[in-house]
Amino acid sequence: MAELVARLRTDLAAARKAQNKPLTLLLGTILADVQNRALEIPSELTDADTVDVLRKGIKKRREAVDIYTKAGRTELADKEGFEVATLEQYLPAEAGDDDIRAAVRDAIASGATGIGAIMGRVLPQFRGRAEGGRINAIVREELAARG
User: Fold this and answer.
1) Are 130 and 145 contacting, i.e. CB atoms less than 8 angstroms apart?
2) DSSP assignment, residue 114?
3) H/E run at residue 128
4) What does the alpha-carbon distance between residue 41 and residue 7 come to, in Å, rounded to a whole number?
5) Three-class SS of residue 126?
6) Considering the domain 3-88 in this protein, what is its CATH number?
7) Three-state SS annotation for 47-100
8) From CA 104, how far away is CA 93, in angstroms rounded?
9) Nearest-CA neighbor of 41 among 88, 2, 91?
10) Per-residue pLDDT at 147
11) pLDDT at 145 (0 to 100)
12) Distance of alpha carbon 82 from alpha carbon 76, whole angstroms
């Protein structure tokens, strides 16, 4: 079992003992999503797979915050914001822009010329440590700078 899943389960047990219902519900939901992901993949679940599930959960909740904020439902937006902040604690440290930029330059130097080819080489290096949109923006900047 992956370390991250074990940590989530331990924190879920602690939340249950403390009778923290919002945290119990959040962690229970995420662990259910992780188990569903484990059923989808043929190999054993890794921390990277769990991070993917966490990122999807965070993205979904951020979208909900935007929707609730636009609708004037601040109490629901605050609840979703709390969940985003809680889930972000389980993510590994973010990769810096300089690290991503260096990897993009290496990919370009090794012959990748299109966005797809560069993304294909760079994304696996930063899986779980940087969002694809951020990497894509840096790739576009580097390609534009090269003319």
Assistant:
1) no
2) S
3) none
4) 21
5) helix
6) 1.10.1510.10
7) HHHHHHHHHHHHHHHHHHHHHHHHCCCHHHHHHHHHHHHHHHCCCCCCCCHHHH
8) 19
9) 2
10) 66
11) 83
12) 10
Write out the two tokens for 100.
Answer: 């991503």
Banded model confidence at residue 144, pLDDT cuts 50, 70, 90: confident
Q: Is residue 39 within 8 Å of residue 55, measured between CB atoms?
A: no
Average pLDDT over residues 77-95: 91
Question: Tokens standing for 133?
Answer: 């949109």
Cα separation, 139 vs 72, whole angstroms: 37
Tokens of 101: 């930029």
Distance CA 11, CA 23 (A): 9
Structural domain boundaries in the chain: 3-88, 97-146
Assessment of whether the complete model's pTM goes beyond 0.85: no
131: pLDDT strictly greater than 90: no
Pair of tokens at residue 33: 């999503």
Query: What whole-number distance in Å separates Cα of residue 90 and Cα of residue 112?
Result: 33
The first and second tokens of residue 1, run together, are: 């079992």
- Which among 7, 101, 99 is positioned nearest to 47, based on CA atoms? 7
